[in-house]
């Protein structure tokens, strides 16, 4: 059994379902990120796991222990779960060391001191034990918050938007740092964010939520290359749909010609749509050729340092495509569009 198992969990506010038969298993030492549109129920799911609210249906196991079902409700303080939220919630009148020691109420003075020193070392704040929170940067305060959450050796850590108040310039450094700390502590974690970039940088796996359910759970690569539904495909990338007819197991007829696939078509349907991401598209100079070429007009451009990104309309949908190194086009220029062979995501109609 995983470190955390949610089986058919539901929760509703005033009869409106917010979590609706949700299933999720988080393995030992796995960091999973709950991702989904605003209001899809991510924070409510964290609260049900923490025991801050009582799930109306289903079963929740933490480290193999049943903590919630129709007959059982283990209160938050007995679930052995650490929590970390965006506002750090450090006690301003306590030193860093006292903040970290706060949850260690059953330990002796010596045990507390030893654990606080271990935690300060883990988060690289050995010299800050006597400081107060206001004497630390936002990133340092967040490291104290994680030290406090890990001090009593929880089996699971819940993180709700922990990086959203951190300066964007240092955010990804802090994310790498906190990921390292969690991995060193060998704890499982459930992380909620709005940012795909944070999710990719911080998590081992992503669980995409929609309408109160997990619609797909897997590594970022699995979800990106083989999304199980349009919701997942659209959530992870800004692509376009092309109508598609299955020609052979690895070829599709589209309005932009035949698209070749690395994977075999497994569905028994013949008509549908394929989802094309920007990196599947190649732009080429027209150079006066007309034969069998599929073209589009450049609408706008922006420079990102290493390349130009061009905006164009393909199959009546706007998409941004990066030019290859050294390539450049003019606004309004007509360019040839080629779709590279790739692992095709086909969705039947
Ligand atoms: N106390 C409440 N009473 C009634 N409805 C609530 C309450 N708390 C949350 N909701 C509703 O439940 C739904 C899910 O809320 P939740 O906070 O879990 O979403 P979320 O996915 O975390 O959203 P966000 O990404 O915006 O933080 C929303 O529609 C929200 O309006």
From TrEMBL:
Keywords assigned by UniProt, alphabetized: ATP-binding, Cell membrane, Ion transport, Iron, Iron transport, Membrane, Nucleotide-binding, Transport
Claim: Magnesium is one of the keywords in the record: no
Q: Which SUPFAM superfamilies match?
A: MOP-like, P-loop containing nucleoside triphosphate hydrolases
One Pfam family from the record: ABC_tran
GO MF terms listed in the record are: ABC-type ferric iron transporter activity; ATP binding; ATP hydrolysis activity
The protein's matches in SMART domains, at most eight in alphabetical order, are given as: AAA (SM00382)
The ABC transporter domain covers 4-236
- Give the CC-aspect GO terms: membrane
Q: Which CDD domains match?
A: ABC_Carb_Solutes_like (cd03259)
Q: Which GO terms describe its biological process?
A: quaternary ammonium group transport
Q: Known PANTHER family for this protein?
A: SPERMIDINE/PUTRESCINE IMPORT ATP-BINDING PROTEIN POTA (PTHR42781), SPERMIDINE_PUTRESCINE IMPORT ATP-BINDING PROTEIN POTA (PTHR42781:SF4)
Q: What is this protein called?
A: Iron(III) ABC transporter ATP-binding protein
Q: What is the lineage of its organism?
A: Bacteria, Pseudomonadati, Pseudomonadota, Gammaproteobacteria, Alteromonadales
